[in-house]
Amino acid sequence: MADRFFCPDPPREGRYHLPPEEARHLTRVCRRTPGDRVEIFDGRGFATTALIVEAKGDSAVLQAEGEPLPSVEPTFRLTLATAVPKGDRFDWIDEKATELGVERLIPVVAERSVVIPRESKLDRLRRSIVEAAKQCRRSRLMDLDPPMEWARLVGSFADWPRLLADPAGLPSAAWPSLRRGGEIVLAVGPEGGLTRDELERAAVAGWIPIMLGCHTLRIETAGLAGCAAILGRAPEG
User: Fold this and answer.
1) Each residue's pLDDT tens digit, 176-204
2) What whole-number distance in Å separates Cα of residue 43 and Cα of residue 5?
3) Which long-range contacts (CB under 8 A, 24 or more apart) does 197-201 make?
4) How far is CA 90 from CA 101, 220, 229, in A?
5) What are phi and psi of 165, to 5 degrees?
6) How would you class 227 by CB atoms within 10 Å of its CB: exposed for 0-12, middle for 13-18, buried for 19 or more?
7) Mean pLDDT confidence for 200-220
């Protein structure tokens, strides 16, 4: 498997220039030199094999070779809107959601939320998304949004199927069908659970409660198990 590097900028005069941190990884960690071939991707769906033309320190210049590499993505777009657990467990959600093929990750702020990530943490998580995409060979980066209040979330995505993780929700056989090329959102509440008022808001707005297992799941388990189950369903159309 070829080493893979993130190159978000378009080519200049037909050549790609890696960002300094990626160039340092190429030269100092992977010990790649001019004449070697690697893969580069721009995070928007484009990837290609490239020849290293120049590589020194925090500078690397590459020349694309051959046709663009295929970008494999789910046949519909999934957004995960989840409360943020304590500790580093949201880092794990961030990484694994990228690997699964989630399109967008939204940190949710509910009444019983105990963690609201700051912009500095979100910036670090966005860097982790790049690293996860490199590892899993994903060419389109997952979007990570700023925190969103529950009241705003339940009033959003009105044209999509909107699912809410709930131990008393519908079994998988009764979940709504998916459409090829469509969009869907899954919401997961905080560890203390959603309040009665928050649940009623969601119900009035048309959110569909779904059961993700026979046991009570932690935030990260619910979010990722739900995403895997949804992405594993065959879309119609």
Assistant:
1) 988 899 999 999 999 999 999 999 999 99
2) 10
3) 197/111, 198/110, 198/111, 198/150, 198/154, 201/150, 201/151, 201/154
4) 16, 7, 19
5) -65, 125
6) buried
7) 95
Q: Which two tokens mark 113?
A: 């939320």
For the CA atoms of 31, 33, 35, 36, the dihedral, rounded to the nearest 10 degrees, stands at 20
Q: Which domains are seen in the chain, by residue range?
A: 4-65 (2.40.240.20), 77-231 (3.40.1280.10)
Residue corresponding to tokens 């990837």: 47
Tokens representing 161 are 């199927």
Q: For residue range 36-93, list pLDDT tens digits in order.
A: 999 999 999 999 999 999 999 999 999 999 899 998 899 999 999 999 999 999 999 9
Identify the H or E element spanning 16.
Answer: strand 16-17
